[in-house]
Amino acid sequence: MTETSPSxxxxxxxxxxxxxxxxxxxxxxxxxxxxxxxxxxxxxxEAARGAGVPCVDTAVEAATGAEIVLTMFPSGEILLDAYRGxxxxxxxxxxxxxxMFLDCSTIDVAQAREAAELALAAGHRSxxxxxxxxxxxxxxxxxxxxxxxxxADLEHIMPLLEVMGRKxxxxxxxxAGQAAKVCNNMLLGISMIGAAEAFVLGEKLGxxxxxxxxxxxxxxxxxxxxTTNCPVPGPVPTSPANRDYTPGFAGALMAKDLGxxxxxxxxxxxxxxxxxxxxxxxxxxxxEGGAGRDFSGIITDIRGRSQD
Length: 308
Ligand code: NAD
What we know:
Elements: E1 12-15, H1 21-30, E2 35-38, H2 42-50, H3 59-63, E3 68-71, H4 76-84, H5 91-94, E4 100-103, H6 109-121, E5 125-128, E6 131-132, H7 134-140, E7 143-149, H8 151-164, E8 165-172, H9 176-204, H10 209-216, H11 224-227, H12 251-268, H13 274-290, H14 298-305
Parallel strand pairs: 1-2, 1-3, 3-4, 4-5, 7-8
Antiparallel strand pairs: 5-7, 6-7
Helix pairs in contact: 1-7, 4-6, 9-12, 9-13, 9-14, 12-13
Bound molecules: nicotinamide-adenine-dinucleotide.
Nicotinamide-adenine-dinucleotide binds near residues 15 and 21.
GO molecular function, one term: 3-hydroxyisobutyrate dehydrogenase activity
EC number: 1.1.1.31
Pathway: Amino-acid degradation; L-valine degradation
């Protein structure tokens, strides 16, 4: 643990009190941090207040007097608009000089770099720290943080991240956290489609789910999509397949993350074939009823399209 007390971090403006943000803010408060919250949706503010997060009425009010502005937003467009301000002053203008702008949302790598440039140009500091671990990890304080920040800024943000997460990886400078996240989630999407195709093929070849699991989970096909989030019910009792694909990690979020991967692939000119295909497959899955289902539910689509 970093040897800094919560009071050393100063006030944290926590913006975006949704599925992830609210429990993260609650954990910070429980650990003794001075947090003030804000969300554009009144119901989210009410829920956060009910959970013990003191909230203010505007983003500007939250940022004024903050030493850290922590954002947990749905998209990079929303983040950049909030930084710059739309029809009024933005967060960058409202915060005192040298505020740490810590964004934990999952956004485009290029947007993360742009956000950092804007923050630095306005006389602030910046870090991107997207997460993995979902709502369960947010509630339990066991998230993994992928951090893109200057070395000198780490000591300022580590005490907070240690409260909200269990594994913290400093991936490099600004944008490196988002870069790591997009690479990981592209692989995750591809591996889940592969796992689901393998289980459907096993069914057609007369293998039991358990027999195939016992082999793959200890053989060279082993991956998280099989050993933890197994797309068939039975072998891993905690996987979403055992509860009719209730997320877990929703298809809408996988489609979003693969869209970000697609942007990054195009931006960098990587000759990937499976990443774009996975993006297309999960976009269709999300658009056709899978948005609110766990992404391992892709197996039902594969079964549905297969011959009897
Ligand atoms: P969410 O939609 O539940 O929460 C986002 C919140 O931001 C909403 O309450 C929304 O009203 C608020 N918001 C939007 N614009 C705002 C603004 N200008 N000012 C203040 N608040 C604003 O989403 P979530 O599931 O909490 O996810 C948040 C981020 O974390 C996303 O980028 C997502 O991709 C990422 N993420 C989510 C999960 C997950 O399992 N839910 C897992 C890993 C990463």
